[in-house]
Specification:
Layout lengths: L10 E3 L2 E3 L6 E5 L7 H13 L4 E6 L2 H13 L4 E5 L3 H10 L3 E4 L7 H14 L3 E6 L5 H4 L6 H18 L5 E6 L3 H12 L7 E2 L7 H17 L5 E3 L6 H14 L7 E5 L10 H13 L10 E6 L5 H5 L4 E5 L3 E6 L2 E7 L3 H18 L1
Parallel strand pairs: 3-4, 3-10, 4-5, 5-6, 6-7, 7-8, 9-10, 11-12, 12-13
Antiparallel strand pairs: 1-2, 13-14, 14-15
Helix pairs in contact: 1-2, 2-3, 3-4, 6-7, 7-8, 8-9
Length: 363
Amino acid sequence: MVIKRRKTKVINIGSVKIGGLNPIAIQSMVKVPTKDSFSAIAQIRRLEKVGCSIVRLAVKDKEDACAISKIKNATGIPLVADIHFDWKLAIGAIKAGADKIRLNPGNIYKKQQIKEIVGAAKDYSVPIRVGLNSGSIPKLLKENSRLSPAVKLVKAALDYVQILEGLRFKDIVISLKGSNVLDTLEAYQRISKLCYYPLHLGLTATGFPEAGRIKSAVALGALLIQGIGDTIRISLTSSPEEEVRVARYILCSLGLANAGPEIISCPTCGRTQVDIEKIVNELQKKLAALNGRAFGFPAKIAVMGCIVNGPGEAEDADLAVVFGKTQGLLYRDAKPIRKISNSKALDCLIEEYKHYAARQAAK
C-alpha cells in the first residue's frame, strides 16, 4: 500500500518547508517558561537531538516575547510563538524573531487586532497558524447545540481564515485539536476537503502518557493513512522528547519517515527461555546512544525468543538473533552466520549494526 498525500500549499517556517509533498515535520513544545531562556535553550537542544523539526514556545508576557531573540540565536530549529489573549504579544514575538505564530480564534478575534498582527506577519514574512482546540472554540459557536464538535472546529477555523484572506494573507496553517479521537478525525477529514492550507495534526489534553500515546497513534495514524497532515505534534503529559519519539514511531510505522533501526521482537510465551523484554529495552537504549542520536540508518533488527517464528522473522530482517536457552543464532542479511552466547548477543548486535550503518553510508 502506498499512501497518497493530500497536496497543500507550501509554507516556509524558518528553514523548514511544510505542505506540498515536503516531509511531514515533527513538532514539540518547550515545557518551561520561555523567559527562562537557559532552560528553554537546553530543552530545545535535546529536542533537536531526537529529531524535532519545529518547536513552539508559550508567550505569556513581554518577557517571554523578548526571550525569543536570545533563544533563536542559541538554537538551530524554527521557533513558533504560542499567543493567547494579548494580540500585542504576537507582534512582539514576530519582531523578536519568531518563525511562525499560533493564534487562537477563541481569544484573539477582534478584526482590528488581527489586522495589526497580519501587518507585522507580512513585514517579517512570518506565517500564522490558526490553532483551534476543543477547549477554545469561539463562544457563539460553542453555545450552538445544533452543531457537532467537529463542525464547530471546522467552522471556527474557516471563519478565521476568511478574515486573514480578506487581509490578503495566505501564509496559513490550520490545526483542529480535540481531546476526543473521533471528533478530531471528523474535523480534519472535513476541513481537508474545504481548503488547501497545510494541516498541523494533533490531539489535545490526551490524559496520562500511555493513553496519550495510544489515542494519538489511532487518530493521527488514521489521518496520515488518508494522506491528511503536513506537520504533527504529539501532546503528552510527559517530556517533549517523548512526544518527538512517539511522533517518529507513528510516521515510521507508515513509511513516512526514517527512524533508523527498527526492532522487531516476539511477544514471548511459555516457550521463551530468555528475558526478551529486558533484552529489547537494553538494545533500544544502546542503539539510542550511538553517535549521541536516537536514530541513525534504517535497519530491521529482529530479536526472537524461540524457533516457532524466530527463523522466519530473522530471514526477513537485516540483522537478527534467535535465542535459545544459553545461545542464540545470529543472522545477517537474512542468513544465519554463527552462534553467539546470550550474554554477548547485545554487544554483537550493536557491532553488526555499526558495520551495517558504515556500509550504508559508503553507498
